[in-house]
Amino acid sequence: MPDGPDGPDDDRTRARLAAVFDRIVPDDGWPAASEAGLFDHLDRLAVDPLTAPAHRRILELVGDLDEQARADHGGGVDEVAASTLDDLLAAMEWSDRDLLVQAAAQAYYGSAFGVGARMIGYRAQPGRGPAAPVVEPVLATTPLGWVASDGYDVVVLGAGAGGGVAASVLA
Known about the structure:
This protein is an all-alpha fold. The protein is 53% helix and 2% strand. The protein has a two-stranded antiparallel ribbon. A hairpin with a 2-residue loop joins strand 1 (3-4) and strand 2. Helix 2 packs across helix 3 (52-73). The longest helix is centred in the middle third of the chain and has 22 residues, at 52-73.
């Protein structure tokens, strides 16, 4: 697979990467992996000495998938049917497929400003201007007179992990 020293430098390689990663994270009303920051993520992997080996392995795996698709099905990963690509991915070694899935998940969900964050409604920056006052919500409380009584069977002090479990069992 022809690549520059830091990553894919041609449209064909990008098309192969997009085909594979878009099967892992497809367009389902939210953008597919290739439309949601995949290439920026792969570029970051390529330039970091700690992650460059994983980047090279990703390119190798996609290249191997492409060669297998051509040999067995007469077309590259970006030319075969989706079900054929699914079968090729399913036949991979677990650790190799896991590397591709991890890279897709990191690209999609790893940024506070990315699609994954928007998908769950997360906003990395407040939706107000710097001069706008902070409005603290008024928390609902139950008046003490409604719940207090003269006698108790148990009093749980501290409702941390252990107190919460104890209160649940005792209730």
